[in-house]
Records
---
Amino acid sequence: MAAIEMAPVVSSNRDGRFAKVLIYVGSGILVVAALAALLAPLLTRWGPTEIDPSGTLAAPGGEHLLGTDGNGMDVWSRVLHAARLDLGIAVLAVALAVVVGTLLGLLAGYLGGWVDDVLMRIVDIFQAFPTFILALAVSALLGGGFFNLVVTIAAVNAPAYARLVRAEVRTLREMQYIDAAKTSGASTIGIMWRHLLPNSLTPVRVIAPLNCGWAMLTLAGLSFLGLGVTVPTAEWGSMISLGTSDVVAGRWWTSVPPGLALLVCVLGFSLLGEGLQERADAKRR
Amino acid sequence: MRILRFVGRRLLQLIPVLLGVVVLTFLLVRVLPGDPIRSILGPNATEADADAARARFGLDQPMWKQFLDYLGGLFTGDFGTSIQSGAPVTGEMALRLGPTLELVVIAVTIAVLLAIWLGIWSARRADRFGDHTVRIFALFGNSIPEFWLGLVLILVGYAALGWFPAPSGRVDPDADLTPLTGADLVDALITGNGPAISSAAAHLVLPVLTLVIGVLAPLLRSVRASALEVLRSEAYAAAAAHGLPERTLLRGYLRRATLVRLPSLAALVFGTALGSTVLVEYVYSWQGFGQWALRGLLYRDYPVVQASVLIIAFAYVLVFLIADVVHAWLDPRVKI
């Protein structure tokens, strides 16, 4: 965090150096988190679901760096291994949402007419709900598990991308270079793919990282409520959920570490997104 | 009159959206796997028992007949009977809305006031130390999982310091509170029940604080951004160049122009807060709407799912409509 505290001294927004600091720190956090997830087995002697028969709820220190939870599983090992699932589901879900949303937005924006009407009315229905509530309802009905969670989080986010890309395409399609492409005989698909798609993705690039952070919070929230990933699979939200009863008794180590890990990863995405936004704003000025 | 026509037109536009919500919820809850009947029957129930229970709730009827019954009930405010509890859904829901609205309204009000003050303060110090501190705080606030924050607050406020009551309810049962609206603090104030007032207030502190921190960040960012826009506008520069006193500039020019955005912001944050309350209620065992809806979803209690989903969508779009009307009323530049 020190780098950001120093930022005002070395920069002003105009030369975009502050944006650079945000992007570097954010990406740095995410690279470290990804490495920790990949190298998890090397960083701990315990498996993520391995039960230590000699003690449940052991305090941190000694055999277990961060103690053990109510099932006698090593908290440090579980925090590390959980990063695979939390980061993986969030990034996959946002990628899926971007692909589906962009495709629908392109179609609605460029074709217009009834395609646009039908697609936008569906988007309206999706956007009649606060996003977390929608995710909650969809995942309660679909059920948990890796695949369903990716689909749920993607489905909740895709409408926003569709609307964003549609708005962008509607301004772009009036541009002269689209007319030029049409008169030189480019096909509809060719125009969408080669001209509209690359240009309409600019706002998507800024929003997607922020969205990944949101997706991680949603996933953990669902698991916390018992709807996402369930014990004994290592996932931060379900670990925090398991630790709720310990908190009232004053035992912090079962729920505080997974929450901190989640906070740091989401912060990484937020910093990256904020930096990209700042850079986009600076360019526009 | 123009405002009335605007409201009328917007209300008409809501009808297809809400109808879509009604149809989709009705279909999805029935098509996706899960059986509401099995969970209320004992493990030894026979197929005949299940059929009898299905008939009791009208689930043996063809789908179109069930849908028409449901739609007909909606027009008279009848949401059907809960399969889990056997009680009318409308009454159950009314009991649950009070406690949740109490949390959301208090938290959103505090967050909005705090965001206005801090956001303008931060914008006037743009790119200086105070501003960066506020922005980093907002980034943290945006990234923190509310449910985890709730647990940390319990750990500190209850387990370590013992300043606040245990997270197991909304008011001390010994305070002998007569329920009226379901919002305990309001009920205690109306009945003038002293012990209940302090108990309800003490129970509110931690959940409200959790929600406030959760929703403050996005508000703060928007207020700061729109205040910055005003500060960099030519109108503001002209007013400042005339040498108007600092107070007039702040009150008459900066704050008023920034506040125009407030209604739509508050509406957006209301939605975020509704989502967060489900988690916050769970952490603090707050028997509100979120807990009720969650239980309904988990047990596939069709009438409860239909009612809660519809009410949330209705409240959310209605709040946005109110925000647009207030905005149009406040800002003469808006054409309606």
---
Amino acid sequence: MENIKEDFKNLDLTVGDVFSKDARLKARNVNVFYGSNKAIDNVTIDIGNKEVISLIGPSGCGKSTFLRCFNRMNDTIDSCRIEGKITLDNENIYNEKIDVVPLRARIGMVFQKPNPFPKSIYDNVAYGPRIHGLSENKEHLDNIVEESLKRAGLWEEVNDRLLSPGTGLSGGQQQRLCIARAIAVSPEVILMDEPCSALDPIATAKIEELIHELGNEYSIVIVTHSMQQAARVSKRTAYFHLGKLIEVGKTKEIFTRPRHNQTEAYISGKIG
Amino acid sequence: MNKKRITPLEATNTVKKSIVKRRSKDNRLKLYGRIAIGLAVCFLLFLFYSIFTKGYPGFFQYYVTLDINFDRDRIDPQGDLSDNSLFDGEASKIVNESLFSIIEPKGRKAKKQAKKIVSSGKDVRIAKMVKNNPSLFGTITKVKFALDDDIDSFLRGYIKRETPESERRISDKVIGFVDKLNQDGRITYEFSDYILKGSASGNPEMAGIKGAFIGSMLTLSICLLISFPLGVATAVYLEEIAKKNRITEFIEVNINNLAAVPSVVFGIMGLAIFISIFGMPRSIPLVGGMVLALMTLPTIIISSRAAIRAVPPSVRDAAYGIGASKLQVIFHHVIPLAMPGMLTGTIIGMAQALGETAPLLMIGMVAFIVDIPNSVMDPGTVLPVQIFMWADFAERMFIQKTSAAIIVLLGFLISMNAFAVYLRKKLERRW
């Protein structure tokens, strides 16, 4: 624990307390390159246990790129290269011995655009448990699906049509289906990449409520464009600008008493 | 530079003036489009009309009914129904005797001419009948025999009575015999039992497409079995697994080039590699299928890659995000979603292969093969090559046979396409 703090450089870059007492995920001096283009510059941050943290910042600041580092989704992009260290429970996830398959089962992800599989609602939720072999039998799988849909707040709406296509649901329902799909494999951390940007205000409110509830069980990292949303759902907020982590702090403080002038400029609407 | 500002009124008027011109341009474009489609439809209709009117009679031919005395001692001298015994028998003679009893030819020459009226397949026909039904022995039964192709052409009116005897393929005497048979009501025009059940033959009245049809089926099966898995695997590898670098780019360019290579080149390659180096037999559907597989591979690869690229990346993200391995992403999501597109490409490739003649000529599938192939290792031919060969023959009757074979080929093709559409619809419904 202590030595991780030691190998950490350039603390002066970020304002506020990047560390967390009860950290699940720790990112240390993370740099991300797309080809020769540096997208993330020396970012260090902790994600606490059962903590909802928002990553905010103007478009192109690298917050989504950074989010995708946590479950190694950037691996699928050929030109992408990552330096630094990210640990999940003190285990470096970029270690060569780490397999991304179990890692992604532990760190679930919800994407910007609702992307249910073109399968039935049931199969969408059951897909994860199936490929990871989590269910003992059909009955158990049914339970997992029901439980996940209930926790995603979708069960009441779809329990009579589990076998109809997931793509036939409304946008907000699809996104909740994606959340149900993510929690069906019992992850420890959920990454959300602007989960509400394609949704209307009512659907957004439902998702936010859901995030709030899920925050009691999981660590949630949410990237959002909406400062109001960050204020509503998260306890901590991190502000990114041009690939750098500018300021981290309690959400209340970030929005009321930003310490960095760039943060202040952003939250007051001067940049963004 | 003219810096005069245009007032809204002027702008409105100018637009109004130009609108007539623009509308007429639109309308002209629409008209050109309609003319083009109309022409295409006309050509197509004409093509189908000409094929069907020419080909339809090809499914029929003239038969003569004769009373045959199934005398076992003469037809089956050894009495065991073996091929040898039936070959030694006098079936032809019996048929001729029955024929002579009706038309009563006088003299050796007349008899010789009269024998030719009935197709030379008469003894085979009798042999087949007694083999299938030995109880025919000892009876006198009416049997239909195909007429010789010249007589058939005469009855169809292609050989005219008015033509001077010296320029006609059949003599006045034979015409007299035919008239007699006609008066007796023994000549009938019926659905041919040779065209669909027969195989290649030098006698047009006995020629059929069964051999070529089965050859086509075998060749296409080999082609599909090789090219579909290979093509899909290649496409999946190039799209989903391989890193984009110089080597994959080089492979890509070459695959695209291969799609444009004339098919006969693949035939030469097949000849050089499969036959010369590997020493495989000539004329067999296995080699034909392999050559056609090489030819269709680029088509399948290109369309499969397009289909894979059309799978939305969000589906891949979703699957990777939940922890699916590459293999699971490919087999659970990419391939099922790309399958309709892949199938379309495959069917297009197969349709191309079905109609291909040139590469098969190179590997000897143009040989005159009477036996119907039982396996991919038996020499055979395919429908387009059969059509090509028949179109080359001089006898008048082959014209109808050629057209009939074209109809069968078209039918084969249409049913293949229909199957593809059905498959696609079925897979798409599963989304």
